[in-house]
Amino acid sequence: MQLNNWGPQDLTAPKERLLPQVPATRGLVVEDVQSGWVGAVVRLEKSGGMHIMELADRREKIRAFPLGFGFLIDGEPVEMVAPATAAAAPAMTRTASGSLKVHGLKAQVAKASRIWVEGKHDAELVEKVWGDDLRVEGIVVEPLRGIDDLTAAVKDFAPGPNRRLGVLVDHLVPNSKESRIVADLMKSPAARNNVLVVGHPYVDVWQAIKPTTLGIPAWPVIPRNIDWKLGILAAFGWPHQGAEVVGIGWQRLLSRVNSYADLEPSLLGRVEEVIDFLTAPVSL
Fold first, then answer.
1. How many CB atoms within 10 Å of residue 186?
2. Is the whole-model pTM more than 0.90?
3. 58 to each of 49, 90, 275, how far by Cα in Å?
4. Tens digit of pLDDT for each residue in 153-162?
């Protein structure tokens, strides 16, 4: 499988004279005249003897431009120049989940509330994309070994207003085994008000990675009589014999994920929903 590596596009603009010089400071909104790209300055670096600034638009897409002429600020032409402290500008202003990155803040002591996911791979994916956010909030992700005993596990956890529980379930679709387990759980008094169960439609969390992230048109369809993960590995032409190959294959897939943009929206929305539920103020 081949991944497409797209680099920033370098665009130059016609040189203007006698324009105000504006330092490319982080957060400044700038428009490139030639391309029409509008974004906030998120990074400035020196490369090949010139300064390059990166502009992130409102969808968090980033393009790079050399400093100089050909830019507008509030509709007025300017010359973008390097600030005196350009080297000190932070390289990142966003976490992998797209949230504003909080610099210099230590992780909170873990709260009683938890996120439960079905397995180790789910936990590793959530940690890679939302780990910074969860450490700021003091929320821990714990993997289960399946959800067959979910109702009993929730009862043992003893949820409460200050001890909430969010559960992310694989393959939560109508008439599935998972949907019946969740329906039984939500009838339990232990789950009332302080437990939120959400799910995604995929057979496994592997499928929550966008095919385009992996450089493929779609996830392979695996016959039901074949173990799904081993079938996926075989379809990719990767080793698919023995128990250890599943973990190795997963790490290869996980290495392709760099941010929320590499995941399907149907997973993104559910995880964000759980985080909002666990961090909402307690009603008195």
1. 14
2. no
3. 29, 19, 22
4. 999 999 999 9
